[in-house]
Amino acid sequence: MSPPIPPHPPRSAKQLLQLGLAQMQRGQFQAAIASFEQVCRLSPHAVQQFKAQRALVSLYRKTGQDQTAIALCQDLCQHPHPKVQTWASQKLQQLSPNSPEPPSEALGFIPLDTSPEASTPSQREVYSPPQKPATEPELAFTLLDNATPDAPNPDKPQPSPEASPEASPEASPEASPQTTSSEDWQEKPLERPQERRSLKPPPLGRLRGLEVVTAILVFISISLPLHGLLTAINELFIRTGLLRPIQAFFNNYNGQIILFLIVCTAISPWLLDAILRLNWGSRSFSLTQLGTFSPEAKQALRQLCRNHQIAIPQLRLIADDAPILFSYGTLPRYGRLAISRGLLNRLNSEEIALLVIAELAHIRHGNLLALSGFGAILQLPYTLYLQSSRLGDWLGDRASNSSQTALVILYQTGFWLTAILSSLSYGLFKLWRYPILPLSRLHHSYRDRLALDLSGHPNGLTRGLLSLAQAIGEHRRQHPESGSLYESWEPLTPIGDRDGQISGQLLHHYPPETLFSWHLKSPYAPWLNLNQTHPLLGRRLYRFQRCAEFWQVSPLLNWADATPVKPHLRTPGLFRLQGAPFFATAIGIGFALGPALIGWIDRLFKLRYVGWLYTDRWWLLLGLTLGGFAVGTVLRFNAFFPELKPQLFHDSPDWHKWLTNPQALPIDSFPVKLSGRLRGRKGTENWLGQDLVLDLDDWQIPLHICSRFGPLGEVLPQPLRPLEACDQEVVVTGWFRRGVSPWIDVDQIQCSQGETPPNGHPVWSIIVVLLGAVWGAYFLVRGGL
């Protein structure tokens, strides 16, 4: 039997803090003490130091080192922050010889503050500050947690101005949502229902029907582009006369495509194993090794698989610090469960166990067959994208280091070819991803429902998802280049890529009830979620709350009212304007189907009046569809891209208001001019600029970058690529939009090397409108000629 895999050594004080918390929750007290002591020595920030010292006091007492705990509290009594002094004084009173030892919890999160006040569940309301003021230890922790980091001074960090008592939550009601402690949902005791009433089983027939529809859509998304490309190549040869048309390109390959889909689905477990090993270096992982990180997960897998008479899924370890897990396979006996090293190191034992149980629920019911097959198909272009990007980076490095002109030209030519291949592969991945989105959303809705039935622990599942989101957000902020791992496996993971990244970072500053209020209160949130792989996270957490109430236990989260607000008078019009390109496209399709139906009836009864309408149905469909899209884009253009005037820029936005306003829509274009650090993937992998974020003080906001010539312009040479400003301080101007995930449509990026050309999005929109209108008119005029 192979020995357990040791945790990956952390590289920063923040990682040491996370490791210490995980060790503390697993009962490894001595190891946790060593980690927290290193944090106190290495961290330059008062926030991290106080978290570590707070945990050390509890650990010293648990391990019988009362004198050491008393000495640490005496040192904290001299801390420059008065709230920390108060907390340390209270702890000194508890550490007196007559103070009883607090009981430790066997499972779940072990609170850093074991005082009765800190463990009292707090009820929170959306849009309102807490009714009862926080206790002194919580206040000190809150104030430090929201303080601006000080100048590095390992010996004695000074408090920041923001951490003054005047900046406390009581002094500013508007600031209370930002300053509410983010640890409440982590410290609140989890109640498990003693007796469970049965839940209504999910309609699996709906899932099976959607799987069939998705298979048809995936077939169409492969067949139409393939046959269209082959036909276009032959048409080019015929019209130019340069080469003879290739006879094989006239063949119909639909049968081969269907066979390809069936084979990919049948061998998806082994195909995904190979892809996971090639791209991410995964390897097999034993149940015993899993038990070293989560004994509960090991016990749950054995017991549940034995009770339901299914084989224990094969475990795969992803040797990466990114916290992620997902399952795939066909039949339950071929199920796989992939877990990353980062997830094992960041989450506690019970959280790991509950996430594993949720994945096992899908494996048990055999719901992974279709999604695994479609995921295997998606991985093919994505693997080509990744490998060609890595080859392009290697060729670029060789070209920059070579001194021979001939080799430089050769390497540069190879670099541009691999960059183009990488971009085309990524575009194919995005195209094939769209038909899978409805199935993925329904898949995760049923996953939550089946996980509730299998685990019987709605509060534990709530904390598991929140902890996973927070771990993803922290990792993505430290390692922005890890986005490809989340993007490639997003349909299978418990939380969406952007949702985990943004909400995970903001959970440190907002309680979940406030952070996810837009998901529940916005009347148009489900419509705006149609292009996402996962249901709205706020609504998933609310379903867990309702289930906890149904089973008569105190829920971990508490939304007083989840009813969507009534839209303002202007909001329905804005929503129609937001979807104008899509609504106009649907109207164009309707206008094309109507004449085609009339022509079909004419031919059916041999009237011979307007039978040509049916003969030219495809030309009508293409022409009116493109024309409708062009008209809708024109209608939306001015509202979507208002003029950027310097006096209208927001340089210090009220993020709380912008993120929680239930009436907000993406078309509410807020002109912004923000300063921060540009982060994202490096090299050819981010050649299209598809994964760039602006790193602000508290969180990272995604940037949507577009050249004046659209995706084609990203492939062509440019005077300054946004990617070249990565890891630099930049100034970004553009339009902030609130959708399911907030983002900024970038107008211009300014850095030390210069600035990018402005107006990329509006110019490209105009080009698309002109192309759609001209092309649609051409189809309508030429018809079947």
Task: Please tell me about this protein's structure.
The chain is of the alpha+beta class and 785 residues long. The chain folds into 4 domains: 13-156, Serine Threonine Protein Phosphatase 5, Tetratricopeptide repeat; 255-550, no CATH class; 577-637; 646-770, Beta Barrel (OB fold (Dihydrolipoamide Acetyltransferase, E2P)), CATH 2.40.50.200. Helix content is 56%, strand content 7%. The chain contains 33 helices and 10 strands. The strands form 2 sheets. The chain has a 5-stranded mixed beta barrel. Helix 10 runs antiparallel to helix 19, helix 16 crosses helix 19 and helix 28 (580-604) runs antiparallel to helix 30. The protein starts with 12 loop residues before the first helix and ends with a helix. The model is unreliable at 1-10 and 98-183 (pLDDT under 50).
Number of domains: 4
Alpha-beta classification: alpha+beta
Going across the major beta sheet, what is the strand order?
5-6-7-9-8
Q: Please provide the count of β strands.
A: 10
Low-confidence stretches: 1-10, 98-183
Major β-sheet annotation: 5 strands, mixed, barrel
Tell me what portion of residues adopts beta-strand conformation.
Answer: 5-15%
- Described by the principal axes of the CA atoms, the overall outline is globular
Tally of separate helices: 33
Terminal-residue CA separation: 72 Å
List strands and helices in order, with pairings:
Blueprint: H1 13-25, H2 29-42, H3 46-62, H4 66-76, H5 82-94, H6 116-119, H7 136-145, H8 176-179, H9 184-187, H10 204-240, H11 254-266, H12 268-280, E1 283-285, H13 287-293, H14 295-307, E2 314-318, E3 325-328, E4 336-340, H15 341-346, H16 349-365, H17 369-401, H18 405-433, H19 437-455, H20 458-478, H21 483-488, H22 497-506, H23 512-515, H24 517-521, H25 525-528, H26 537-550, H27 571-578, H28 580-604, H29 612-615, H30 617-640, H31 655-660, E5 670-680, E6 692-695, E7 700-704, H32 710-715, E8 729-737, E9 743-751, E10 754-755, H33 760-782
Parallel strand pairs: 2-4, 7-9
Antiparallel strand pairs: 1-2, 3-4, 5-6, 5-8, 6-7, 8-9, 9-10
Helix pairs in contact: 1-2, 1-3, 2-3, 3-4, 4-5, 5-7, 10-11, 10-19, 11-17, 12-17, 13-14, 14-16, 16-19, 16-20, 17-18, 20-22, 20-26, 28-30, 30-33
